[in-house]
Each structure stands twice: as structure tokens, then as C-alpha cells.
Amino acid sequence: MKRSFLIPSFALLTGVLLTVSLLLSFAFDNDRFYSGMGEEAAIAPQDEGIVFTYYVQGTTKLYRTSIDGGEAERVTRKAGIKETAPAFSPDGSELLFLGTSTTDIQSLYTVKNRETEILHPSGEEMHFEDAVYSPDGQSVYAIGMPADEWMATSAESSTGFDIYEIDRESGDVSQITEQDYYLMNNLSVSPSGDYLMFTVSSGTEESVETTPLTEGTDIPVPYRQLPSGMYGASLSPNGEHVAYTAVTDTSSNGNFQYDLFLLDQNDGQTQRLTSAATNVESPVFYHESNSILYMEDMNWPKAATDYHLRSMDVASGNATTLEPEVTGIQKHVLLGATAGFFMNNTVTAALYLMFGISLIFLLRRRRKAVYIPVVISAAGSAAGYIVNFQDPWTYQFVNLAVGPAATALIIFAAVFWVTGALSRKIP
């Protein structure tokens, strides 16, 4: 009697779990439930602390910890927005960051003593990509573009990104560049406030450029024509060095490897600081020591990122891992791990295989019904190939969303065919 309920119960269980796996894969992307370290950080003046981004169920929030790591606390009380790109004011009393709500428009926010305010530049609504304070704290330099242009399709938009200066007291906005760049990011200001450094992208490669803020500015010669392929460039507090990441030789598994480099303004020479088969991002300089803070993805090049906050002493080359303790999110971590497990393509495929085989054994006494999983798998595979033939881009999206590829479905159909034939011989 117990045996008669075993196969139906197993088929029901695997069917329910497969349904959950497919629904999660269709409805959400892989990062929706992720909780863990983000890829950005900022160091307070006098090295009094570190603010970093941290994912809580797929949404980045800002946390602050001591300069050596340890217990971390939320920077803001703001709910419902994604918080990115932290930047300290010169005196360390205020923090600037980008906030994204339900729309895709990124606005500028300031936070002081955990009280958050939106920065209201005068004129039309803007979408921002990065921002920093001027050395005297009286202005904010920001990369942005009109919000309506940002929301428009590429065919409709005629405007790109530029740099703007926002007066903190009046909110008046003045446009510094008129280049309409395709993409811009990684904005830095020189310690004297006479030039800006930033990263631009043409869509195929990135390069670092500078622009003067005052007439007659003497930009250091090595900074005037920097080579392409520099990512995440950051200017040191004294303006004498630039930290950046770049693609080095491919690693042993054939994937690109991103390492940390340091450019010296005095002689124009570069020094390679890392050589691990990982992905290094977002370098930022300490203010009071010859050290660099950066993010390292230890799981590179796999899709599930595993960022760690790393600190390197430039003179010795020794790097240590800082481990901020983010508390109060245990339930989010558990939920994210569970959802991530069921959204894994291998798990989806295993559940599909187990459900198909259990269904075959459940229907083994019916001559033709045992081949239902075969028909379903073959039809799914055929549909995938048809979509691929008509629209390859749509097929790629469907393939990623469903999990098992059309080729895998053909393999499953063969397995189910053999299983169905053998099951009919079982009494």
C-alpha cells in the first residue's frame, strides 16, 4: 500500500518544485534575491571609516564600517530606493550618493546624521551616473543628462552624457562639457579643483579623459592622453597617481582577467598590483596612508558574484580582506539562497528529469501515455529551434529564462524514450 503511494507522491513533489523553479526563473533575474557585498566603496576623509554598497534581496543599500572592518550599520533610513555611488564631502560630515526608485531615473541624494535629502538642481529633471564634491564643498560635479532623453529609445534620443556643476546653495546648474558621450562614469576631481578626470565609453572600449575647470589649467602630461582599456579610474587625493583596472592576459581557464594597476604622474610609468585570476573593480585611495581599497570578485567569471572588500599596501604589495559584519538581514540571506538554488539551471534540469521519469513510471501501465514526457520535451526543443531560426535574440532570452536549452530537451526526450520503453516491461 505504501509503495503504491510512493511514485505518485514523488511525481507530485518534483512537479511542484519544478513549477516553482520555472516560475522563479521566468519572473525574476538571477540578482533579484541576492544578498551580499556590492561593488562600490568610499573612504571618509582622514580615513575615519568606509561606506560600501551591500545587496539586500537584489537592492543595493549603503553601509558604514570602521577603517578596519567590523560591525556595519545602515547609512540612511531611506526605504524603496537603490543606493549607489557613495562620495564623501571634503570635511566628511556629509555623504553624496545616487538613488534609484521605481523608475530608472537616478537622482542625487545627500545624507547627514542618517537624514536623507534629495539634491534639487534647478532646471529640467536630470538622470545622473556619478557625482563628487568640489574640494571646497560648495559645488557638486555630476555626470548626467536630461531625464527624458535618458528614458527615450536610442533612436529617439539625440543627447548623451555630459558633466554639470551644481551650486550647493542655489541649486544653479552649469554645463561643463558638451560632448554627448555615449557613456560616462568614474568621476574624480583634482585636489586643487582645477580639472576633472572621468571614464568615457564609445560602446566598444573605454578610455580616461580630463577636462579643465579653469582657464590656463596645466593638466599633468601623463593624464592628457591616457591609453584606452582603463576601467574604474580613480585619482589619488594628492593627484599624483591614478588607480585603475585593466584586462591582462587571459587566465588558465581562458577567461579575461582584470587586475589592478597604478599610474605615476611623475614618470608616466604603470605598476601592476594584482595578478590573481579574479575580477578587480572600483579602486579608491586612502587619504592618510599609501594604500588602495578595492573590490575583488572571487567567483569570477561565474555569473554569481562574490565580492570581497580588499585593502592593499602599495609599498609592500600585501593585501588583506576586510570583513564588515552586516547584521539583521539573516532572513534575506536565507530567502536569497533558497531562491538562488531553485533558479539554478542545473537544479531546474534535474527536477525536470526526475519529474519526467516519475511520470513515466506512474503511467507505465498505459501503452502510449508513458511517452507524454517524450512528446513534451521534443515539442519544447522544436519550439526553441523554431524561435531561434526566426529571431536569435529572442531565442537567447527564452533559453536563459527557461533554463534547459533546446539541445538539452532533445537529450531528455531520448532518455524519456528509453525509460518509457523499459518501464513497460516492469510488472
Can you tell me about this structure?
- This protein has 427 residues and is α+β, with helices and mostly antiparallel strands.
- It folds into two domains: 2-28 and 343-423, no CATH class; 37-335, TolB, C-terminal domain (Neuraminidase, 6 Propeller), CATH 2.120.10.
- The chain is 27% helix and 35% strand.
- It has eight helices and 24 strands.
- The chain has helices at residues 2-27, 147-151, 221-224, 330-342, 345-362, 372-390, 392-402, 406-423; strands spanning 36-43, 50-56, 59-66, 69-74, 82-88, 95-100, 106-112, 115-118, 126-133, 139-146, 162-167, 173-175, 183-189, 195-201, 206-212, 231-235, 241-248, 257-264, 270-272, 279-285, 291-297, 307-313, 319-322, 324-326.
- It has a five-stranded mixed β-sheet, with no helix packed on it.
- A hairpin with a 5-residue loop joins strand 13 (183-189) and strand 14.
- Helix 1 (2-27) runs antiparallel to helix 5, helix 6 packs antiparallel against helix 7 and helix 6 runs antiparallel to helix 8.
- The two termini are 16 Å apart.
- The model has no long low-confidence stretch (mean pLDDT 86).
- InterPro entries: 6-blade_b-propeller_TolB-like, WD40.
